[in-house]
Amino acid sequence: MQDALERQRIDTWLWVARFVKTRALAVDAVKGGRVHVNGIRVKPSKEIRPGDRIEVLVGEDRHRIDVVALARRRGPATEARLLYDEREEDRLEREQRAEERRLARPTGFEGAGRPTKRDRRRYEAGPGARRKR
Fold this sequence. Notes:
The chain has 133 residues and is of the alpha+beta class. It has helices at residues 10-16, 23-31, 77-80, 88-104, 117-125, and strands spanning 8-9, 35-37, 40-41, 47-48, 53-58, 61-67, 84-86. The protein is built from 5 helices and 7 strands; from the N terminus they run βααβββββαβαα. Helix 1 packs across helix 2.
């Protein structure tokens, strides 16, 4: 997968490295200012090289990565992971924020799958509603 490319468009690289699902989403991310190359906001046509530092905001996660390699086509995630390096402290910080978001999620029908019709009716009735037996 790792071909000897000298330059590659940032939008294509983000798609190949699996930070986004489609090229169109990569273009939208770059145009929306969620991607910086070497500290500078860029356009989708910006060409990157190995050694460039990229900062990508994907959802609530901020990825600070160094480009290691470029690729001609999108491949499996295991190969895509070889295209960049992420600092250990950045990865730990991102994982900690993800854990905090997970713990802050509202509880409810968590772990029970979809609510049943009976569960839904109880939920919609509210806490002070009388229940039939």
